[in-house]
Design a protein that fits this description.
Elements: H1 3-16, H2 22-42, H3 48-72, H4 75-89, H5 98-112, H6 120-131, H7 137-152
Helix pairs in contact: 1-2, 2-3, 2-4, 3-4, 5-6, 5-7, 6-7
Length: 153
Amino acid sequence: MSLKEQLLADMKEAMKEREAGKLRLSVIRMVRAAVKNSEINGKKELTEDEVMAVVLKEVKMRQDALAEFTKAGRQDLIDQTKAEVAVLQKYLPEALSDEELRDMAAKVIAQVGADSVKHLGKVMPLVMAQTKGRADGKRVNAVVRELLTQVQK
């Protein structure tokens, strides 16, 4: 079952749950609308990876908002945003562990022959392509920088 089909099936299920599935229903509707808008703007149907990218974008937006709500001390919005992120996490692949991410980055660094932080631009796109939504860009950047500084010494 594709991600779009899964979203549709879960939306129907949340509709049947009425009050209990209200939050889930609204989040799924937002994601489906974002997918539809991307399809309209691109004038083509999205692939599975592109749908995953839309879901990742929605999670990222909520995580950024969560940081702002925390600064403002808005506990009600913090709780709601955390619940929305939890709903969206269901549609994302399992996150890479730190060890898996380090191994992946080390292999790419060896493959490219990078020996300093100057080669970050060569390494990052290759590592990000391999992670495919299983690791946040900030996290990948931090690991790659750390490994490159170790190689540099």
